[in-house]
TrEMBL record:
Its main location: cytoplasm. Keywords: Cytoplasm, DNA-binding, Phosphoprotein, Transcription, Transcription regulation, Two-component regulatory system. The modification 4-aspartylphosphate is found at residue 56. One of its GO terms (cellular component) is cytoplasm. This is Response regulator. InterPro entries: CdaR_GGDEF, CheY-like_superfamily, Homeodomain-like_sf, HptR, HTH_AraC, Sig_transdc_resp-reg_receiver.
Length: 503
């Protein structure tokens, strides 16, 4: 930073000599004025950019302490250093009590001067840093909070502090910028240099920045849109970018309103095709906020195809649904809820077929597929289709496994009177016996042996109903049991199981 310095002394040789010593110290110290008295400085004070004043203690008309008092009333942030001789020590001590940084004895020692200047510069930098941090915290608070829900002292304090900085001296607008890949703060600052106006930028969330930009008296309603367009043009073509711009507002307490307007513009321009796009709040078009229309579109084709496990049709229906949603351009909350409904249907089908989600697969699709996480509609739909296709693939595999189970069941129904070894059944479906056993148990909830027994018992009951005169061993032989004692045991167990199932 540059420290802007004025020198006040009634002795020309001393003031000119001190000014020369200060300039020799380094380029970061700039003399903005050399004055023979306090009144002369006060006459130009309103037009000076000033950080530090060197003043003599004893001067005619107005001494150094009086000058310090007058300047502090009008410019309380300005710092002071006094020049004195040994005989003026009591004056110097009084000046220090008034908050003066330090005093230098005449003749001025170069090393002491350099040490004082470095100390003042460090203090100024620290103060400016703290002020910038405080201003950023206040801006973030008012951007992200409804002032009606904040304690009064917080809003009053933030509003009072921010009103003192140039950004809010007149009007302002909020610009939301989303990019992919994410821009660094230094890169974004470089692109905003063309604005040539005061602004503050903040990283708000991944790949999104909030920019508050000053709008002056000579500007008009489309100024905010114009400077946002300039920013968009400076961003490299390889970077995907979306910009939403608020209307023009006055006063820091309007920050939240401006942010919501910029977000509304961002949500709408988010659907645009191409690498770059922007919109502003003054040019928004109406769009549906209700999610019911999107859900009805799902019920039209996607849900029936899913229930029939017509997976190619289901995937095509989902693409068609996204195409229709893109035309409607719903607000993000409605789109997020509809996307959650899509995955709710998919998980429901998986659950109904006792198929588990793969390890690590998140069930909170509403959070993972939140539109705000994506730079554009295109990137959102790509992620949604990829995730949905993965679950449809699992359903496809589950359907194939169901066919295996149905094939085994059909074979058992047809050959229940024969010896049904596990190896024989596994050979029919080209699986190993152990994998078939696990698959059958997973899909049906019972073992293959239990299923064979249930089929044979069911047929045994049919034989007894049709021909009650049959002996037990005869019925057993008819359903594949050559051992009468074993059949009798199995049959009694089957009857007890059926009785337990009767409500």
């Amino acid at each position: 930073m540059i420290v802007h310095i004025a020198v006040v002394d009634d002795e020309e040789k001393i003031r000119q000599g001190l000014a020369k010593l200060i300039e020799m110290t380094g380029d970061e110290y700039k003399i903005v004025g050399v004055y023979s008295g306090g009144l002369e400085l006060l006459g130009e004070l309103g037009s000076l950019e000033l950080d530090l004043v060197f003043t003599d203690i004893k001067m005619p008309q107005m001494n150094g302490l009086q000058l310090i008092e007058q300047v502090q009333r009008r410019r309380p942030k300005v710092k002071f250093a006094v020049l004195s001789g040994f005989s003026d020590f009591e004056f110097a001590r009084g000046a220090i009590r008034q908050g003066v940084e330090d005093y230098l004895l005449k003749p001025v020692d170069q090393d002491e001067l350099e040490a004082l200047l470095r100390r003042v510069k460090n203090n100024l930098e620290l103060e400016r840093y703290r002020k910038a941090v405080a201003a950023e915290e206040h801006i973030r608070l008012l951007l992200g909070s409804d002032v009606r829900h904040l304690p009064g002292h917080m809003t009053e304090g933030a509003g009072r502090e921010l009103s003192q900085i140039g950004l809010f001296r007149e009007h302002f607008a909020v610009v939301l910028l989303r990019t992919d890949p994410e821009l660094t703060g230094e890169r974004l600052a470089f692109y905003m240099e063309a604005w040539n106006r005061e602004h503050r930028s903040f990283v708000w969330e991944p790949r999104q920045s909030v920019i508050v930009v000053a709008i002056g008296k000579g500007d008009h309603d489309d100024t905010a849109r114009g400077i946002a367009s300039t920013l968009l043009q400076r961003i490299p073509h390889a970077v995907q970018a979306r910009i939403g711009v608020s209307a023009v507002h006055q006063g820091p307490l309007k920050l939240r309103d401006a942010y919501l307007e910029a977000e509304a513009a961002m949500q709408q321009v988010w659907y645009e095709d191409g690498i770059k796009a922007m919109n502003d709040y003054l040019h928004l078009s109406r769009r549906p906020e209700d999610v019911s229309g999107l859900l009805r579109l799902l019920d039209k084709d996607f849900r029936p195809a899913l229930q029939l496990l017509d997976l190619p049709r289901a995937e095509n229906a989902l693409r068609g649904w996204l195409e229709e949603a893109g035309k409607l351009r719903p607000a993000w909350p409605a789109l997020s809820e509809a996307a959650s409904a899509v995955f709710g249907l998919l998980r429901g089908e998986l659950s109904g077929r006792q198929t588990r989600l793969p390890a690590g697969e998140s069930e909170d699709e509403q959070l993972r597929l939140s539109p705000g996480r994506f730079v554009s509609w295109h990137t959102f739909t790509s992620e949604l289709m990829e995730s949905a296709s993965a679950l449809l693939h699992i359903l496809k595999e589950a359907r194939q496994e169901n066919r295996v189970v149905e094939t085994v069941k059909a074979y058992v129904q047809e050959h229940y009177t024969e010896e049904l070894e596990l190896q024989r059944l596994a050979d029919r479906v080209f699986l190993t016996p152990s994998y078939l056993s696990k698959l059958f148990k997973t899909e049906t909830g019972e073992t293959i042996t239990d299923y064979i027994i249930s089929v044979r018992i069911a047929h045994a009951k049919e034989h007894l109903i049709r021909n009650p005169a049959l002996k037990t061993y005869e019925v057993g032989e008819l359903v594949g049991y050559g051992d009468p004692a074993y059949f009798n045991k199995v049959f009694k167990k089957g009857r007890r199981t059926d009785a337990q199932r009767i409500p």
